[in-house]
Amino acid sequence: MMRAAFALALFALPAQAQQADFSVGSEAAPWNLYAESPALFTAKVVDLTCEITGDCPADCGAGRRQLALLRTADQALVYPMKNAQPVFSGAASELAPYCGQMVEVDGLMITDPDIGAQNVYLVQRIRAEGAADWVKATQWTKDWAAKNPDAAGDGPWFRRDPRVNALIAENGYFGLGAETDAQLVKELFE
Predict the structure, then answer these.
(1) 72 touches 83 (CB < 8 A)
(2) What's the whole-model pTM score?
């Protein structure tokens, strides 16, 4: 019963959320995404599944859980879906070191009820509450490089990623097989 009440309260929060002007003081760089606005706020880094279900392993799931930001101003759960890098690689690498801590984050908020986007956040920089220096939210590719030392080289990480290249080798670029790829390339580019 308690979880059901919490779930109902959780869905009521978006109506209360966004009352404050979170753009004040933000230095977030625009991405020119639909419905984006700069947003600077204080929040607690939380395990999203824990907040919703009460299933709370130690250390925010030790990297196996999606993390969220419980915004101090209105207790809204904010979903950090992206870091400051060009691809949508997520923000868990950026937030994991701050599990359970209060932080300040600066980035872009995507909010549009017509498309169902509410409190979707793109973290560009982060710092522990009270810290002087900001940390750029670019940890993901550093973590990827450490896990894939044999994939060093020029170009974006996804062109060198062993998992990506194995899938392309097995299924082709379009996921339809090498023969279909060859036919499509012939039709489109020759």
Answers:
(1) no
(2) 0.76
Question: What's 24's DSSP letter?
Answer: T
In single-letter form, the type of residue at position 138 comes to T
Domain boundaries, the chain: 2-137, 148-189
Collect all residues with Cβ–Cβ distance below 8 Å to 106 and sequence separation of at least 6.
26, 27, 28, 38, 39, 40, 123, 124, 125, 126, 134
pLDDT along the chain (190 residues), means of 10: 43 50 94 93 95 89 87 94 77 90 96 89 95 92 90 87 91 88 87
Place of tokens 């625009």: 30
| Phi-psi sector, 90: left (phi>0), alpha (psi -120 to 50), beta | left
